[in-house]
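> Could you send the ABC-type multidrug transport system, ATPase component prediction when you get a chance?

Sure thing. Input:
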Amino acid sequence: MCDDSGVEDVLVRAKGLVKRFGEFEAVRGIDLEVRRGEAFGFLGPNGAGKSSTMRMIASTSPRSGGSLTVLGMDPDKEGPRIRARLGVVPQQDNLDLELTVRQNLQVYGRYFGLSRATARARAEELLDFAQLADRADAEVESLSGGMKRRLTIARSLVNDPELLLLDEPTTGLDPQARHLLWDKLFRLKSQGVTLLITTHYMDEAEQLCDRLVVMDGGRIVAEGSPADLIARYSTREVLELRLPREEHERAAAAVTDLGKRIEVLPDRILVYADSGEVVLEAARARGVRPLSSLVRRSTLEDVFLRLTGRSLIE
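Output:
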């Protein structure tokens, strides 16, 4: 699909996309479209196929089946041309520890064919963007985790990419560093950069993503905006009841018809309903006396756990 200016509106298009490793099928025939200027997310438990999909889009891993175009090109045939227009932020920082902060940016710019003067100028711009100008001549090893992550993102922007791939961009960072990175990603999006993000943080996906897919077992099990997914797979509110363990069975039976669904966990009972306060009042009228109760809005985490389960998959 093209807009009125003739510029391709869909930057990534996959149909029946498959990735196999021997007999194991990591990605099992997925369809997706990523539009220009949006932040698109991949959510899923470990082994869901997110990283395999990202590597195919990054043109570093060939597909095993189906069709895939990135920036209007076939990655199997035009991988170098695609990679020249991409920015990639890997899950683990792979900065050159022997170089300074500034040198990491300048040398990476040279990899993309920038002249020395252009690479120097671009490095200064990105140092300001990443709020690292005062550490420009410091060794990378001396930086905090948040600073290293900002530098990795800044480095991925050296070639002024149209499409930025971010694999778990804030894993391991403290809340302040995460929010600072979110601010940087919002700024990039406002400048027209298209973002593809994998994350384990549900609040991050809600904050950053216009649309997302939930993957499980190599398939897409849901797609939409965070608000759409919450409306489709959860309820407006969730009532959390904490009771003595021996009272869980009786309390669950008492509230089972008060919500659209309930979930009994080892430490609490979750009741999904449009009004948690109404359910709480009705539960108390039926003799349920929780040690504590909490009414909260439904979140993307509720959707994620409903679609993928609470059991840890190794």
